[in-house]
Amino acid sequence: MKGGKLLVFSAPSGSGKTTIVRHLLSQPELNLAFSVSATSRPRRVKEKHGEHYYFISISEFKNHIKNDDFLEWEEVYRDNFYGTLKTEVERLWAEGKNVIFDIDVVGGLRIKKKFPEQTLAVFVKPPSVDELKIRLKKRSTESEDKINMRIAKASVELATAPQFDKIIKNYDLDIALEEAKQLVLDFIQEPTLDKKE
Predict the structure, then answer these.
(1) Which of 17, 28, 116, 131 could bridge 127 with an S-S bond, Cβ 3.0-4.6 Å?
(2) CA gap 99, 122 in Å, rounded
(3) Helix-then-strand count for the chain, H and E
(4) Which tens digits make up the pLDDT trace of 81-122?
(5) Contact present, 70 and 85 (Cβ < 8 Å)
């Protein structure tokens, strides 16, 4: 696999990474396309197959794992698999696009490891774990148990921040959006080196 740049945005749920990624996708000069992940989790009310995720069964997901079809994958919660299909990235590269990912920290770091020169890995940091809890409750999409699970996971995810190329502190959304755009712009304008001089 060889193509354009890869922009990885990772963060705990509720940090604002999806809002940042949507903003970046709306900037034509960045020439970005969104990598739609595959998942075995059930579809939520307003989600569309092929737009938000590729919704596939657990057995289909496991078949893809067996066939080495994923760039990265993970069982995020029990029987809730998420992954990036190689065909998805190849399709977007064939369109001449830079590919942006809204992805969990484990998957983000795996992509960075596979494509160290082509990938900018950005960690979006929330103001605090308490603020995360408030944001997740405001969404009203999940039970208290699910929220508590996400909060417990967030503490572990926050510890991985130093492994990313850049950290954006999302304390003020407008500033975070501007910072993200500048980071991406600088990165896509750099020539990709196949090997270090």
Answers:
(1) 131
(2) 14
(3) 7, 9
(4) 999 999 999 999 999 999 999 998 999 999 999 999 999 999
(5) yes
